[in-house]
Design a protein that fits this description.
Helices cover 14% and strands 27% of the residues. The protein is an alpha+beta fold. The strands form 2 sheets. Strands 5-4-3-2-1-6-7-8-9-13-14-15-16 form a 13-stranded antiparallel β-sheet, with helices on one face. The longest helix has 18 residues, at 5-22.
């Protein structure tokens, strides 16, 4: 939000790196709709930018139990069998603590092991380079940016603390649920960037806009064999309708990767995936801008001042909540590759705004829109001036 552009680019690079590692041998990942504050063990407003929130923690401080990086192995009933995390940090603090837990029972009990660590160390003092600044400093300098001014790391105050706790008990067999449905979730957000807090504070017409931080992403691989029978029944009931197949061509397992930073979103999915939810009945593909009302470019959740820049003028929504209400209830990504402007008014676009969209996948091809010149009127030009060819999803 109010951070350097290089940090957003670094977040995308970090998530892409994670996606590449995990996708070796599988089609991986999902973001937008894949990233969930609940999967990070965080409330929706954990990244509030301001002191105005009525919470039990201090503004721009870490929420107890909230994580800015999380790996979960879980069943479809909410049981978790494996977790690895990094703790959310306060503004201007570097990541320094985290932990893990593995257990046999869905409720967290049974044989297993857990542990935590804390370096108790802030090597880079406030006002110097943030974590993501350091990651992209060589690239920033290479492409003509000024870079940041790294300060010499401070010496460690002492030894890190590490705890490992074995867990005893009796397996209750609940792990068998993983055969009927299992999910691997890996999510990260820009609190990793030296404690960045860039979510709405609930004031100035943002009380219903909290949706986690503005920037983040996730990788999800979801095993759901019980859905195959319903998928086959749907195809049999309407053999001439290609939509159910094209939107979910691999019903046994779905996977995806996606991330959003500075309003720029990208994603690769194997099945239709919800990436955002507004307040107006209906559904739209996230890369299809027909009917979309864009909030002003200066509107974002980076600060209370930016939250007050969301008045769209005559005939347009007046605040962030109204822009969210005007969005479709179900904004979806389709199987394939897509790049698009973040539909969430919390985003902090860097331009061009709105970002021209692009999509190639089983549901067709779409290109243009937003800041791009409108395509000439034709049978394949939609109301947003995009060239859009649909296969029938």
């Amino acid at each position: 939000m109010a951070r350097a552009r290089s940090r957003r680019i670094a977040l995308l690079a970090l998530l892409a790196l994670i996606g590449g590692v995990l996708s070796a041998g599988v089609a991986a990942a999902v973001s937008g709709g894949g990233y969930q504050p609940s999967e990070q063990d965080c409330p929706l407003n954990a990244d509030s930018n301001d002191a105005g929130q009525p919470t039990s923690w201090q503004p721009q401080s870490p929420v107890p139990g909230c994580h800015n990086f999380k790996l979960n192995v879980e069943d479809h009933n909410g049981g978790r069998y494996g977790q690895v995390w990094l703790d959310q940090t306060a503004q201007n603090q570097n990541v320094h603590s985290g932990g893990f837990k593995f257990n046999t029972n869905a409720d967290g009990s049974g044989p297993g092991v857990s542990g935590t660590f804390d370096t108790n160390w802030q090597p880079f003092p406030p006002g110097s380079c943030g974590l993501f600044d350091l990651l992209v400093l060589p690239f920033d300098v290479l492409f003509g940016g000024g870079g940041c001014s790294p300060a010499p790391p401070t010496p460690p105050p002492g030894a890190p603390t590490i705890t490992i706790t074995p867990q005893s008990g009796t397996p209750d067999g609940s792990a068998a649920q993983l055969a009927q449905g299992a999910k691997v979730y890996l999510g990260a957000d820009d609190n990793l960037d030296t404690g960045e807090h860039d979510g709405v504070d609930g004031n100035y017409g943002t009380a219903h806009s909290a949706n986690g931080p503005s920037d983040g992403g996730a990788i999800i691989v979801d095993w759901h064999p019980t859905q195959v029978a319903a998928w086959l029944a749907t195809l049999a009931a309407a053999p001439g309708a290609p939509g159910p197949f094209l939107s979910n061509p691999v019903p046994l397992v779905s996977a995806g990767f996606g991330s959003c930073a500075d309003g720029i979103c990208l994603g690769v999915y194997t099945a239709k995936t919800t990436v955002y939810q507004g307040g107006t009945a209906g559904e739209r593909d996230v890369y299809n801008y027909s009917g979309k009302q864009w909030d002003p470019a200066a509107c974002s959740s980076g600060s209370p001042q930016e939250e007050q820049q969301c008045n769209g003028g005559p005939g347009q929504p007046k605040n962030m909540d109204q822009y969210r209400k005007a969005e479709k209830q179900n904004v979806v990504a389709q199987p394939g590759v897509q790049i698009y402007e973040d539909p969430d008014p919390q985003a902090s676009p860097i331009g061009p705004y709105p970002l021209p969209a692009g999509y190639v996948g089983t549901c067709g091809v779409t290109a243009g829109g937003g800041a791009a010149p409108a395509a000439p009127a034709s049978p394949v030009t939609n109301s947003a001036g995009q060239v859009s060819v649909s296969t029938g999803c």
